[in-house]
């Protein structure tokens, strides 16, 4: 098992504070673990069963809080001192807790996925144990691309048009008579927007501040996407995709979308829902190359846990290959521990799916997802403005300026 040592920091434990997981059961110390994904929760149940066999004095209780409620319940529980001892977080939300001494920092392990370690490193310290990660690749409908004579692996996009092959391919793959679209251009930040910005050499953030307005390469990338939707009509209307984040996934599994750039988090849905042959190709190549987002979920520990030693033991387990093996073997996600990664690759290989495009994307040039103590609030503020841009109701340059101002203002609050 890989070891995880906690840096020594003063713990400010409030007297009389009741922390979730504080009850003792038959001489055991109960450590609570919170997450938002019901599928991955099944893998954790298996993992913690193995942990408890090796640690009979510790019980791990899994708390499932749906995504829709997660980010309203978490800050309320942290303020009340009733949060779980260990909980999942994403990059948009961990900074505010790290900056306010509400998390236990951890020492990085060389066996953890480096891009995820980098994402959760702030002010010179690592604040979470990588649990799972995803990168971006291109799903494609083999029947549709075959009939159109399109090779997904060679597609490039270029706002100047000089080296652009995506637009022409998407037109070939679009059929208005059958309601079939060529590509999933949409306001999908992780799978589409940030990847296009990055692969054009653009920027999104500088430090903890949004920095995308007035940036020509960023504006070019956004304009290209907006044109695919509203000018070329090779992508679904933003009126549908803005209000339904799963719309393009649904179209793809229905055979109504030929090219679907997305992450491994949709593998199981596509495997279960697609009634046709499909494959994976490298993500689209832009003027700056293939540049995609690598995102990850980390497990963080509350600095206010009343049983630090037991919590540390659970964190050690969560940072080990054995602890993450059920996540990988069940085909749920790429695990944060690299030694467990092959089990995930092998699972999908047995399903006839080669995950190499995702692996190549993660080890190539990457584009950082926004981070910062209040970046979640900033993203919430700019989202409706950028949705107007994708609808074609607001010009790209003006929309990016309004969105940046709204986002940065929200992060001051």
UniProtKB/TrEMBL annotation:
Under the heading InterPro entries, the entry gives: SBP
Instruction: Report the protein name in the record.
Output: Sugar ABC transporter substrate-binding protein
Which segments does the entry list as coiled coil? none
* Similarity section: Belongs to the bacterial solute-binding protein 1 family.
Cross-referenced Pfam families, in alphabetical order? SBP_bac_1 (PF01547)
Query: Per the UniProt entry, what species is this protein from, by scientific name?
Result: Actinoplanes oblitus
Kindly give the PANTHER family that the UniProt entry links to this protein: MALTOSE-BINDING PERIPLASMIC PROTEIN, MALTOSE_MALTODEXTRIN-BINDING PERIPLASMIC PROTEIN
What the entry lists under Gene3D superfamilies is as follows: Periplasmic binding protein-like II (3.40.190.10)
Classify the source by domain of life.
Bacteria
Q: Which CDD domains match?
A: PBP2_TMBP_like (cd13585)
Keywords assigned by UniProt, alphabetized:
Signal, Transport
- The residues the entry assigns to the signal sequence are 1-20
């Amino acid at each position: 098992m890989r070891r995880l040592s906690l840096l020594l920091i003063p713990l400010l434990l409030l007297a009389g504070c009741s922390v979730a997981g504080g009850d003792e059961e038959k001489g055991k110390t109960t450590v609570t673990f919170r997450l938002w994904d019901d599928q991955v929760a099944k893998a954790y149940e298996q993992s913690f069963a193995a942990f408890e066999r090796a640690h009979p004095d510790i019980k791990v209780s899994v708390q499932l809080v749906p995504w829709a409620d997660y980010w309203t319940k978490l800050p309320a529980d942290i303020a009340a001192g009733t949060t779980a001892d260990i909980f999942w977080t994403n990059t948009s939300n961990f900074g505010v807790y790290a900056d306010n001494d509400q998390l236990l920092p951890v020492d990085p392990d060389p066996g953890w996925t480096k891009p995820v370690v980098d994402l959760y490193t702030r002010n010179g310290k690592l604040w979470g144990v990588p649990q799972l990660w995803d990168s971006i690749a291109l799903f494609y409908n083999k029947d549709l691309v075959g009939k159109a004579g399109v090779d997904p692996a060679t597609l490039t996009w270029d706002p100047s048009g000089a080296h652009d092959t995506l637009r022409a391919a998407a037109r070939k793959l679009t059929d208005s008579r059958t309601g079939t679209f060529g590509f999933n251009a949409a306001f999908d930040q992780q799978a589409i927007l940030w990847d296009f910005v990055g692969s054009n050499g653009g920027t999104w953030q500088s430090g903890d501040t949004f920095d995308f307005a007035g940036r020509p390469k960023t504006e070019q990338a956004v304009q290209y996407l907006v044109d695919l939707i509203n000018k070329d009509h090779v992508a679904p209307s933003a009126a549908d995709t803005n209000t339904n984040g799963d719309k393009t996934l649904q179209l793809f599994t229905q055979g109504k979308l030929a090219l679907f750039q997305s992450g491994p988090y949709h593998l199981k849905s596509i495997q279960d829902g697609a009634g046709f042959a499909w494959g994976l190709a490298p993500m689209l190549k832009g003027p700056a190359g293939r540049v995609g987002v690598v995102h990850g979920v980390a497990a963080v520990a509350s600095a206010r846990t009343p049983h630090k030693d037991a919590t540390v033991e659970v964190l050690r387990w969560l940072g080990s290959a054995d602890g993450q093996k059920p996540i990988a073997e069940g085909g749920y996600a790429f695990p944060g521990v690299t030694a467990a990664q092959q089990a995930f690759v092998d699972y999908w290989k047995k399903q006839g799916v080669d995950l190499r495009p995702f692996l190549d994307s993660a080890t190539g040039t990457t584009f950082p997802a926004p981070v910062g103590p209040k970046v979640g609030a900033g993203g919430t503020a700019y989202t409706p403005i950028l949705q107007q841009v994708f609808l074609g109701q607001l010009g790209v340059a003006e929309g990016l300026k309004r969105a940046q101002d709204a986002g940065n203002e929200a992060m001051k609050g």
